[in-house]
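Q: How would the structure tokens look for this protein?
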Amino acid sequence: MNLYQRCVATVVLVSASLLAACAAPAPQQEPPPAAAADPTRPVATIREVMNSVIDPSVDVVWNAVGSVVDGGKLTDRAPANDEAWAEVRRHALIVSEAANLLVMHDRPVAHPGAASLAPGVELTPEEIRALIDKNPDGWNLYARELQDSLTPALAAIDKKDAVALFEAGERIDATCENCHSTFWYPSAIGAAPASNTSAPAK
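A: Here is the predicted structure in token form.
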């Protein structure tokens, strides 16, 4: 076979290979993996999380420090020892983590048939649910702000700084009230009752 014949044979072979490649079916693409199912499973209602988890623990944080007038005498209140500070910290962590519970999907506001706990002031569970469904981003933002408000409280606890903890407690209270006045009683916004507790003396 001379050089010309070799070149012709090579061109024919390459052309045949290209035609075969073009005629071959395209490789099958793997379908995208299915989204993983949400592994969480809410048990308590939002009302139960508030009443059984958040409220009792945030009260410990709020009541840990302050100056109270008792019998005409001003008394400073603060955790007395490391164990007492650790207990306050434990409750602050509970509130911070409970914010995650509030944003879990499919958590009902209350049990079926439950009524408003303060008719004429607090909305019914169905009305609260409607507001949350209408503004889920706002609901999630308030939950995150609750969690963020615990950060300075935890820092104050770790420093055993009663004044800083009192100031952090005011931020927590404001965050809670902002959420409640948006989703729980938007038509009953008014002045908060005066407190007989003030910041501890510096």
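The longest helix spans residues 136-159.

Residues 2-21, 190-198 have pLDDT under 50 and may be disordered.

Upvote if useful.
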